[in-house]
Design goal:
Structural class: alpha/beta
Order of helices and strands: HHHHHHHHHHEHEHHEHEEH
Number of strands: 5
Number of helices: 15
Strand content: 5-15%
Radius of gyration: 29 Å
Largest sheet: 5 strands, mixed
Shape: elongated
């Protein structure tokens, strides 16, 4: 809350607001204290509105999600990682959030106690072009907390923003000691952007390994789209061009998200690679599928998305009684890595090996399609119940 006051949108107007309230009070210190408290209550009213919004979100979705378990949810962790990256880009100035001129024009029109309350609310609102990322991150965190903790914390941010105003209103002589606005404010803002990126890395590390590479790829594409959104247009850009550029950025983000990000839970019950179990299954004339993959392999992610995440493929594998093994070749000393080269004589991934009854085998290399796999599976008889 204190840091919100050193944002470039807020710091330069603090003396203006303080002197306006002081001039309204005249020489009456009691009145200046009353106006100052009214102004601060307006700031708290803004954060109370945020707290109410947070409560509505928690109560509205609690029937579907158990918020206490959110940080164990892969989709939520991925979404929070992407949100922190976008908010970090906001702090770096890649894009901005604007306030309508009709609202900003009313920022200094309040008079009396009611006007001071309104002016405090508007002061907090007008800080959002700089503080949006901090507030959004705070609300996102509050969604994982109990109602009491979340509400108390959000209101405490409001107290942190309001207290310096009250101190300066009561002792306006301190205004002359305030540092002058300058580049240091922007550096603080950008420094907070790195903090948000650090949080994103922490969230990313909690994701399963098969999710991390997909989310990292999408982070780059999403960052490019955000840069298009904010950097390819300016205030003077025509409305038509803005719609075109931002619409194109949105389309790229949506299509890339659909193609890259994991869209659903595993539809195949993969077993960890085990050469002994594979040999036993082959001796018992059971069909075996080995998917050799690696975390760093982008082609493997594409095969996973368009072949092995398909429900019809998962159903067919179950119908044919195929034992499915995942051969992780991420590291050079993994058993699957060694067997891929020494036993199956394959130079790299992605490759899927099918060991079929009768000693037959089939290898599907590279960017296979679901029809390539389906063609082999269709030759197998249905599993006996």
């Amino acid at each position: 809350g204190l840091l919100l006051n050193v944002m470039p949108c807020v710091w330069p107007v603090i003396p203006i607001i303080v002197m306006r309230i002081w001039n309204q009070a005249g020489e009456n210190r009691v009145r200046s204290m009353g106006l100052g408290l009214a102004f601060c209550s307006g700031i708290l009213l803004f954060f109370a509105a945020i707290a109410v919004l947070n409560i509505v979100l928690i109560l509205g979705f609690d029937r579907v999600f158990q918020w206490g378990d959110l940080l164990r949810n892969q989709v939520f962790l991925a979404a929070m990682t992407l949100l922190m990256v976008v908010l970090g880009l906001f702090m770096f100035g890649v894009f901005s959030i604007g306030i309508p001129a009709s609202v900003t024009s009313k920022a200094g029109t309040g008079s009396g106690y009611a006007g001071s309350v309104g002016m405090g609310f508007l002061a907090a609102l007008l800080a959002t072009p700089c503080s949006f990322a901090i507030l959004a991150a705070a609300v996102a965190w509050a969604q994982t907390q109990t109602l009491g903790v979340a509400t108390f914390t959000l209101m405490l941010i409001g107290v942190g923003m309001a207290v310096p105003y009250l101190i300066l209103i009561l002792t306006p002589g301190l205004l002359s000691r305030l540092p002058k606005p300058g580049g240091w404010m922007e550096r603080i803002k950008q420094g907070l952007g790195f903090l948000l990126l650090l949080i994103a890395v922490k969230l990313l590390s909690a994701l399963p390994s098969e999710w991390r590479i997909s989310v990292l790829y999408y982070v780059v594409i999403l960052s490019f789209c955000v840069w298009m959104w904010g950097g390819w247009v300016s205030y003077s850009t025509t409305r038509g061009r803005k719609w075109l550029v931002r619409g194109f950025a949105l389309v790229i983000a949506v299509i890339a998200g659909w193609a890259i990000l994991p869209g659903q839970a595993e539809v195949i019950d993969w077993l960890d690679y085990d050469a002994a179990k594979i040999a036993t299954a082959a001796d018992e004339q059971k069909p075996v599928l080995i998917k050799f993959t690696a975390d760093w392999c982008s082609s493997c992610s594409i095969v996973e998305k368009f072949v092995y995440m398909r429900k019809d493929i998962g159903k067919l594998i179950e119908q044919k009684g195929v034992l499915a093994f995942k051969g992780d070749t991420t590291l050079g000393d993994n058993p699957a890595t060694l067997d891929l080269a020494n036993i199956y004589k394959e130079p790299g991934v992605p490759v899927s090996v099918l060991l079929l009854p009768g000693g037959r085998s089939k290898k599907l290399r590279g960017l296979i399609s679901k029809d390539d796999l389906k063609e082999v599976l269709d030759t197998l008889p249905d599993a006996t119940r």
